[in-house]
Amino acid sequence: ILQIKRHKIQFLSLLLMADEQENMIEKYLERGEVFALYEDEVKCVCIVTQENEHIFELKNIATVPQYRRQGYAKTLIHHIIKHYRGKGQFIQVGTGEVPTMLTFYQKCGFSPSHRVKNFFTENYNHPIIEDGIELKDMIYLQQKLV
């Protein structure tokens, strides 16, 4: 797992699989820290931002399609949690109200925190559909870093 300091844009096509609107990624790509999990080639990438002195946010995590469901994202998340432990109070992640995603993050140790009503409908220029579900609210989950 490498922290990418320069040329973060090289991962844009992969990041677009997790957040399909480029201008949304542009809002956090440069200010975020990018981590890439390699095993011969890149398997999974994520971006983490510092939202305030107490909270880090996992903004985007994307796995190359043929390597999904093989534990790469979970491994990367565990690495990130270790990396930020002691640097803030919480790490959070926002996702749509999709059971598979909520279950995944809960298995990674996150607990439900709060909801932002109509986030997807107000911030994206087209409907966002995941697992056949149209996303409306952003569901946040958190994990303590202390």
List keywords for this structure.
146 residues; alpha+beta; seven-stranded mixed β-sheet; two-stranded antiparallel sheet; 25% helix
Task: Give the helix tally.
Answer: 5
Give the H and E element order: EHHEEEHEHEHEEE
What's the total count of β strands? 9
Give the integer mean of the pLDDT values. Answer: 96
User: What's the helical proportion of residues?
Assistant: 10-25%
Largest sheet: 7 strands, mixed
Low-confidence stretches: none
> Which sequence of strands runs across the widest sheet?
1-2-3-4-5-9-6
Distance between the termini: 22 Å
Shape: globular
Assembly level:
single chain
Which structural category fits the helices and strands? alpha+beta
- How large a portion of the residues is in β-strands, by DSSP E? 35-45%
Rg of Cα set? 14 Å
Structural features, described:
It is a single chain. This protein has 146 residues and is α+β, with helices and mostly antiparallel strands. The protein has helices at 12-15, 22-26, 72-84, 99-107, 119-123; strands at residues 2-4, 33-39, 41-50, 55-63, 90-95, 111-116, 129-130, 133-134, 138-144. The strands form two sheets. Strands 1-2-3-4-5-9-6 form a seven-stranded mixed β-sheet, covered by helices on one side. The longest helix is centred in the middle third of the chain and has 13 residues, at 72-84. The model has no long low-confidence stretch (mean pLDDT 96).
